Amino acid sequence: MLNDSLTAFRTYLVTERRFSLNSVSAYMADVEQFAMFLESNDLDIKEYSRNDVLAFLSTLNARLLAPSSKSRKVVSLRLFGSFLFDRYAITNSMEHIASPKPEQLLPRYLTEQEITQLLDFIKAEATTERGMRNYLMVVLLYSAGLRISELLSLTPTSFRFDTGFIEVVGKRGTHRSIPVPQAVMEHVRKYIVAHKGEELLFGSSRTEKSLSRQQCWNIVKDLVARAGVNSDVSPHSLRHSLATHFLGRGVDLRSLQVFLGHESIETVEVYTHIDRTALREAYAKAHPRK
Predict the structure, then answer these.
(1) Which end of the chain is more exposed for a tag (fewer CB within 10 A), N or C?
(2) Residues paired with 159 in a beta bridge
(3) 55 has pLDDT over 60
(4) Structure pTM?
């Protein structure tokens, strides 16, 4: 009956649920893997139990599968369990199987020493037009905590030189004002004067000179590598770095939320985990009774 139920399940996915071929292949691979587990343990599909499902899932843990892969397998099994119940009146022992909690990936970030090393290296190269552009890109990504899309949409009119603020258009057209160090503003002023008439700060109306997100990403990766900073970072990592450093210096979460332009304060709470990690490392190194 097991083979017949698998064939019928495939037909059900294609004809009744109308899933794409890729989805059908993924669901079937998961269910067939469960079927092989039942066969290898002499278990009958008509009498499988919740404990059998949990035993199967425990084998996935032993294989160190990513939580996302295990979650998809649980979804596949739930779908199969519902099908078996509707088609063959087999008790659905998969209905209340919980999906594994998604792994929370902490954002990559640079230490303050690594940021200093990176900025010192880039500033030393800022003797050419391209070198100054690269320096301003990196220093604004970090000092203003900008998203890459926000950086590339900056125009000369985004800068309020009298107040030291940048007017940024964020996600879904939201606006926020960000204070920037005066020294950075002076570099921006000189750069704008040198590129008078251009519509974008890091591009122009001439397509061949406009920067894409990928080009910006490649520039940052190259600069990090040449600066000797041993860290796998992206332009967004500079934003994460600033957030982490702010927290380490006592900035509260609400202020950080406003500065970064997050809609919810829960979004910035991930940085508290990073900060605690740094605290634990400092504790381990410095505590007199360790």
Answers:
(1) C
(2) 166
(3) yes
(4) 0.59
Active site residue 276: no
Residues paired with 179 in a beta bridge: 165
Number of H helices, E strands in the chain: 12, 3
Instruction: Tokens 């604004």: give the residue.
Output: 140
Enclosing H/E stretch for 261: none
Decide which of 268 and 182 is more confident: 182
Q: Is 226 a catalytic residue?
A: no
Amino acid at residue number 286: A
Active site residue 147: yes
pLDDT of residue 287: 46
Residue 187 annotated as catalytic: no
236 is catalytic: yes
pLDDT at 109: 84
* Three-state DSSP state, 147: coil
Interval 161-190 mean pLDDT: 90
Q: How far apart are CA 63 and CA 206, in angstroms?
A: 53
Cβ-Cβ contacts under 8 Å for 211 (sequence gap 6 or more) = 152, 202, 203
- Name the percent of the chain lying above pLDDT 70: 83
Catalytic entry in 17, 46, 96, 171:
171
Q: What are phi and psi of 174, to 5 degrees?
A: -75, 145
Neighbours of 144 (CB within 10 A): 23
Catalytic residue among 73, 133, 147, 195: 147
User: What are 183-201's pLDDT values in tens digits?
Assistant: 999 999 999 998 887 888 8
**Exactly one of 262, 283, 287, 290 is catalytic; which is it?**
262
171 catalytic? Reply is yes
**Active-site choice (70, 239, 240, 245):** 239
